[in-house]
Amino acid sequence: MPIARILFPLPLPEPFDYAVPEGLDVQEGAYVAAPLGKYERLGVVQEMLPDSAGDGRKLKFVSELYPTPPMSRPMREFIQWAARYTVSHPGHVLGMALRSRGGLVPSPTETVYSLTGATPARVTEARTKLIDAARELGPQSASVLSEAAGVSSGVVKGLADAGVLRAESIATDLPFESPLADLPGATLTDEQAEAAQALKSAVATRAFETFLLDGVTGSGKTEVYFEAIAEALKTDADAQILVLLPEIALTQAILSRFESRFGAKPAPWHSGLSDKERRRTWREVAHGRARIVIGARSALFLPYRQLKLIIIDEEHDGSYKQEDGVTYHARDMAVMRAKLEEAVVVLASATPALETMVNAESGRYQRLKLSARPGASRLPDVDLVDLRRAPPERNHWLSPHLIHAMQETFAAGEQTLLFLNRRGYAPLVICKSCGERLKTPGTENWLTEHRYTGRLVCHVTGYSIPKPKTCPHCGAADSLMGVGPGVERVAEEVRTLMPEARIEIFSSDTAQGGEATRGIVDRMEQGEIDVLIGTQIVAKGHNFPNLTLVGVVDADSGMKGGDLRAGERTYQLLSQVAGRAGRAERPGRALVQTYAPDNPAMLALADNNRDGFLQIERDVRAELGLPPFGRLAAMILSAPSAQMVDEIALQIVQQAPNGEGIEVFGPAPAPIAVLRGRHRRRFLVKSPKNIDLSAYMAAWIARLKLPNPVRMSVDIDPYSFL
Ligand SMILES: Nc1ncnc2c1ncn2[C@@H]1O[C@H](COP(=O)(O)OP(=O)(O)OP(=O)(O)O)[C@@H](O)[C@H]1O
Ligand SMILES: [Zn+2]
């Protein structure tokens, strides 16, 4: 009897062997169910072993084979590689590939009713209403039809019995429409055409290659990679294409752009999908029928059959780093996956990460440059507003200079975008009587005041309460006061300054779900908003033709804390935001309010000198041996009490293996020192570039015996510091 070695999506150290019963055609990569402990569990066959491997062992049997094509070999190799790299169990990584069980089986069916053309012998008002609804809506379920007609569902049954409606069973999850490769794209500029040609040749060659598509904001990076997608669709009838976007950029606007370029909606994958949408995308990807997938970082772990092209748009974006569970950076993983799949990978950005630039300079990545916007559109002028010289009025946040520019813009019939990366009304609430700062219980996280909902909200844990009438600390009445600006407060200020202007807030609070977002984007595009005040949700992907002024309310907010990438991230975010201005005929400008106009990131922004800025960053990191010139890993410990975690941390550091050139720092409080009632400590490990830091961390962990309530996780290439 053949033997299947099965990996389960569980934190187990290794796969298990099972006998395959006669008549079950189990192959490598098959999705199967098998008994494990008390349960039947889903797993994936890693390997088929010859009968002899049974070796007299008494094996349990594979109990079920799912009707899904086997997981491809490159995908299985990718899972093993990712597990090793991130120091995780392979089963954990497999779990990320199995995010929809419903996708493993065929779509459920439902009964829909449509008109046969026959007229009923007996006509009632209810029947007439229902027939009208069926005519208007086409084939629908009984409940949809009866609800639309406002009659009971018995009417549907009556009409079906009378031969007026025909019942039909159809799949609930429809396949995605096939994209078309040969619809015309934009007429490319010379520079765009050259970049597109390089990508197309690589795609046609079907070998692994990594590109950096380095183009200023609005230079047509999307148009260029559309050409590569079209080429992949053309070259290989089975090729699948993955486009990764930062989650917040996955808006209707970009989906519509894909739809008009390829004549079909791409398959979506992100955290906002319903179970039904999720299983549909998963199933269609696993069967190789979804050709273009557009998703957030986790879309990288879908079981493509034939992945030939991966695009990572805004490759520098911080949201590609997964911070929970298996911690990974989707950009770096994508490059590895492309290598295993022999695919082409394109990293697109106007502000590439330093890591990526260094890879491009060393020739590991091929760099394609777009230096200008097409047509009349120009990059905006960026001016720094020195708040030390001309500050806003007390308890106000807009400087006279910015206010003046906003009024000019409004008078010219053009739009302003104010950027402030703080949701709500005020990021801190204090008591005027006793000075207490309101925090989430058991943590050091401040509560943010949200006036719109009347609540105090913790943006780290999600904890929220109605704003108390009295101070929870001293009991004083009406003593709680919001300190500092959030978007709601800036909106209030703009309202008093420009009472005739139409003002809206764009943040994850006002734009929950696709429809609300669509509404704001539409109104902005149609010119129905004069001043839009937004968080980083506005920074990406939008083209507002009449937007000519961008005001950055607080450019310094991202610079605080000891984060290694704070300057780089601030530069990236602000040039991204500034790049929203002047995208059509009218020229744009950006005013950046700062108390630190001499900071290299601010100077580079004003001079549009990205490469100069990166050079400074690069020198600093090379000097300190920090990434990409050295390597970092973090080990995070947590326990229910501070004392317990501190004791364990001291024991653990004793057991760190010796390694040439490896330094262990800490323990120190982790970036979020208290999370869900657990106290966290962190070690930071630094090594030279040529050291296998994953192997070092794995060796360290292997020595540890952690008592029960203590938990430990490893973060290779950590991104959050402090
Ligand atoms: N060759 C072209 N002809 C006409 N319009 C173009 C051309 N290239 C780009 N555009 C238009 O210019 C705008 C910006 O292009 P696109 O969104 O592709 O740029 P991007 O570099 O991806 O922008 P972002 O800065 O948002 O990343 C879009 O409206 C696009 O349709
Ligand atoms: Zn008080």
From TrEMBL:
It catalyses: ATP + H2O = ADP + phosphate + H(+); Couples ATP hydrolysis with the unwinding of duplex DNA by translocating in the 3'-5' direction. SMART domains: DEXDc, HELICc. Zn(2+) 2 binds at residue 458. GO terms for molecular function: 3'-5' DNA helicase activity; ATP binding; ATP hydrolysis activity; DNA binding; zinc ion binding. It holds the Pfam family Helicase_C. Residues 202-370 form the Helicase ATP-binding domain. Its cofactor is Zn(2+). The keyword Isomerase applies. One of its GO terms (cellular component) is primosome complex. The keyword Magnesium does not apply. Binds 2 zinc ions per subunit. Its EC number is 5.6.2.4. Initiates the restart of stalled replication forks, which reloads the replicative helicase on sites other than the origin of replication. Recognizes and binds to abandoned replication forks and remodels them to uncover a helicase loading site. Promotes assembly of the primosome at these replication forks. This is Replication restart protein PriA.
